[in-house]
Specification:
The protein contains five helices and three strands, in the order ααβααββα. It is of the alpha+beta class. The protein has a three-stranded antiparallel sheet with strand order 1-3-2.
Length: about 110
């Protein structure tokens, strides 16, 4: 698969909602029909569809219609790309923290 640059703003916006995170966790276990995703939420179907469209716009899921059933599938490559970005950020911040720690230790030693 070609490397892609995910739209992190859309991804983090999609992940900011606990209902969408719950849906995504369920979809991550395997393809699931929309009706099954809607059942435990207690939400109206149009509301569930809006949540799913946000996840789909962020490329976290894809949907397909088979007969009368709409199935939702996870797109783990998007989460992997997001995790890569977060790992890079973590390394940057850990390096900054290490430099600050060394600086403070030097100040204490010289005092």
């Amino acid at each position: 698969m070609a490397k892609h640059d995910p739209d992190l703003s859309l991804i983090f916006q999609a992940l900011s909602d606990p209902t969408r995170r719950t849906m995504l966790a369920r979809i991550g276990l395997g393809a699931v029909p929309v009706s099954e995703l809607a059942r435990p939420t207690g939400l109206a179907l149009p509301t569930v569809m809006r949540h799913l469209s946000v996840l789909e716009e962020a490329a976290l899921i894809r949907t397909e219609k088979t007969g009368r059933t709409r199935l939702c599938h996870a797109r783990p490559e998007t989460l992997a790309a997001t995790a890569d970005w977060m790992a890079e950020q973590r390394l940057i911040w850990e390096a900054r923290s290490d430099r600050l720690e060394a600086y403070v230790a030097n100040l204490i030693k010289d005092a």
